[in-house]
Specification:
The structure is a single chain. The chain has about 270 residues and is α+β, with helices and mostly antiparallel strands. It has 2 domains: about 80 residues, Winged helix-like DNA-binding domain superfamily/Winged helix DNA-binding domain (Arc Repressor Mutant, subunit A, Orthogonal Bundle); about 180 residues, 2-Layer Sandwich (Beta-Lactamase). It is about 50% helix and about 20% strand. It contains 8 helices and 7 strands; from the N terminus they run H-H-H-E-E-H-E-E-H-H-H-E-E-E-H. The strands form 2 sheets. It has a 5-stranded antiparallel β-sheet, sandwiched between helices. Strand 1 and strand 2 form a beta hairpin. The longest helix has 27 residues.
C-alpha cells in the first residue's frame, strides 16, 4: 500500500470513529439514566468490541463516566459548545501575537488546538516568501511527528497521549519520522524537558518547525509554531526563532490565564 493510500485509509477510519463517538454521545445525551454497553452498541449499530473501544476513549477524555453498575453516563453536557467557545477565545486572544510573530520572523506561523481526540490547525499566518512552508486551517496533525502535535501530546496525561496516537495512527511520512513507540515516548520526554518541540523533516522532506505549548488553567491545550524551509535554518536562526516563540507562547498563555473566570481554581 502506498503512503497516499495509507493516509486515505487512516483519514477514513478516523472520521468514522469520530462520527460513531459523537453518535454515542448523542445517545447518552438523550437519556437521564446510565446505559449499558450492549444498549449503546445496538443504538450505534456497532459490535461490542468497537463500542467498548470508543467508550474507553470517551471515558479517558472525560466525556463519559461509568457508575457502580458499569453503565455509562454522559459526564459533560454541552461540552461541544464549551469547546467551541474556548476555541474562539484562543483565536481571538492569540491573533495579535501570531501576526506580530509572523512579522518578526518572516516565516509561517501556525496555531493548533487539542480538540476531543485529535489535534487540529485552527489558524495560519503565511510567510510572504515565495518558497515557504505552508499549513491549512482544519488540518489534523500528527501527535508524534509535527512540532505542534508533539508540543501538545507530550504534556497530556498518559491515557490522553495514547488516545491521540491510537486515533491518528502511527506511520512513516519521511525517512526521519519516528514510528517506534519507545522512540516516540523518548521524544515526548525530550519535549517536556526542553519545553518545546521540533519537527526535523519528520512530516515533510526539507522542512523544519519549532512548536511551543500554550497553557490555559494550568493545562496544555494548544500550541504555536514557526515553520521554515530547512535551507534557511542555521543555528543562529534556530536560536532566534526559539526565543521569539517562547515569548509569544508565554504572552498567549498569560492572556488566556487572565481571561479565566475569577475565583476559578487552577489545577496543574
Amino acid at each position: 500500500m502506498t503512503s497516499a493510500s495509507r493516509r486515505s485509509v487512516s483519514s477514513s477510519t478516523n472520521s468514522r470513529a469520530l462520527a460513531m463517538g459523537l453518535k454515542i454521545l448523542q445517545c447518552l445525551g438523550g437519556e437521564s439514566r446510565s446505559m449499558s454497553l450492549s444498549e449503546l452498541a445496538a443504538l450505534a449499530n456497532l459490535g461490542r468490541p468497537s463500542a467498548l473501544r470508543l467508550l474507553r476513549t470517551l471515558e479517558n477524555l472525560g466525556y463519559v463516566s461509568r457508575d457502580v453498575g458499569k453503565g455509562y453516563r454522559l459526564e459533560v453536557g454541552g461540552s461541544v459548545a464549551g469547546m467551541q467557545g474556548d476555541l474562539s477565545a484562543l483565536r481571538r486572544l492569540a491573533n495579535h501575537f501570531c501576526r506580530e510573530l509572523q512579522s518578526k520572523c518572516g516565516e509561517t506561523v501556525t496555531l493548533a488546538r487539542l480538540l476531543d481526540d485529535h489535534i487540529r490547525v485552527v489558524d495560519v499566518f503565511e510567510s510572504p516568501h515565495h518558497i515557504k512552508m505552508s499549513n491549512t486551517v482544519g488540518r489534523i496533525l500528527q501527535p508524534y511527528a509535527s512540532s505542534l502535535g508533539k508540543a501538545i501530546a507530550a504534556f497530556q496525561d498518559e491515557a490522553v497521549t495514547q488516545t491521540l496516537l491510537d486515533v491518528y495512527g502511527v506511520y512513516r511520512l519521511t525517512k526521519h519520522t519516528l514510528v517506534d513507540q519507545l522512540a516516540i515516548q523518548n521524544e515526548f520526554a525530550t519535549v517536556r524537558e526542553q519545553g518545546y518541540a521540533e519537527d526535523r523533516e519528520e512530516t515533510v522532506d526539507g522542512g523544519y518547525c519549532i512548536g511551543f505549548p500554550i497553557s490555559n488553567e494550568g493545562r496544555v491545550s494548544a500550541a504555536i509554531s514557526i515553520s521554515s524551509p530547512k535551507f534557511r535554518v542555521t543555528p543562529e536562526v534556530t536560536e532566534r526563532l526559539t526565543n521569539l516563540l517562547r515569548e509569544a507562547a508565554g504572552e498567549i498563555t498569560a492572556e488566556l490565564e487572565g481571561s479565566a473566570p475569577k475565583g476559578h481554581t487552577k489545577t496543574g
